[in-house]
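Q: Focus on the shape:
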Amino acid sequence: MKKTPILLAGVGLLTLPAVAALAPGGTAYTKRASTALLAQPSAMADTVATVGYGRKLSISAAQGAWLNVRDGNKSGWVFKGNVSEQKIAEVKGADGLPLEASQTTASAAARPLADGAVEYANRKGLGEARADVQWLEDVTAKISPDDIRTYMQTEKKGDCQ
């Protein structure tokens, strides 16, 4: 019975370094192909600079879910969800394309499924998967970037928290 509080305290102590890492004086690494540095800690703020994938950023201040960071002579605010406390390795799949969706070009993403993938889907009874993907693409094509931004602001999601 007394082991539970001790276990919880131990787990809490283990999470302290992770929390402290994304704090003033710490370091963060970008997770996107292009990360905007904003003038203010707000998703609607003007972009003052951009930095590339895997860039090491020095954290100078924190405000809620936002970090004020510096990369050389560039500085600005980033949403915590756009950075990592650990350097992210650039990983590529067997076909040489990046595994991160944000790094995949539109032409690579739009190419049809390989014959082997279609055969596998048919063997596993997933023959309707192609129609499902087409339906999803048709529906998402009707959603504008403004619709997405409005939803994120209304529901306080992502960098609109």
Summary: The mean pLDDT is 78.
